[in-house]
Prior knowledge:
9 strands
Amino acid sequence: MTSADQGTGDPTGVTLMTVHMAKGLEWPVVTLAGLEDGLFPLARSAGEPGGLEEERRLCYVGLTRAREKLYLSWARTRYRTGRLELSEPSRFLEALPAGALEERSTTPLWDRGARRGGGRGAARGGRSQRPAPAALDWEVEASQDAPRYAAGERVRHRKFGGGVVRAVSGSGRELKVTVEFDDDEIGTKQLLVAYAGLEREWESA
């Protein structure tokens, strides 16, 4: 976003900008995306004097731009330099009080204790050495755009109504979910996600 863009957009639309550009501004709703180690904070910041603290200050700026609602997101897998890699949630998320967050996920929820429980070995120079990401217990999709669902998640179908995901199978365009619908007459159905038009209930609320 540049100065030429200000005042020309739809006030009901979405404004995209870097955290640097957001200093001094506020909005009712703010979304911070890409909260993953190596992305925010940037991987190179750990090797620069004061780099990590500068990233921490920028994160604070982003968090405090929201007046009413704040959404924080991170991806478990992301394409980097042409390869699909596993991601770890940003270390900055650990500083947030657990009671202030409502976690929503289409994959197993982030376990704060799992990261802390394993401990971090001391590296040379007194800096902590971050462990490698643990192996994931679900199939990695070939595309970041492919929707993911988890057993126990509530969804809504435009024809069958609301229901609960009981099983997930396949991947990509062949991803299927078995949904137990609230209507007993409809019962349980297996649907091909690419054509089912499912919505998560919290998205359609």
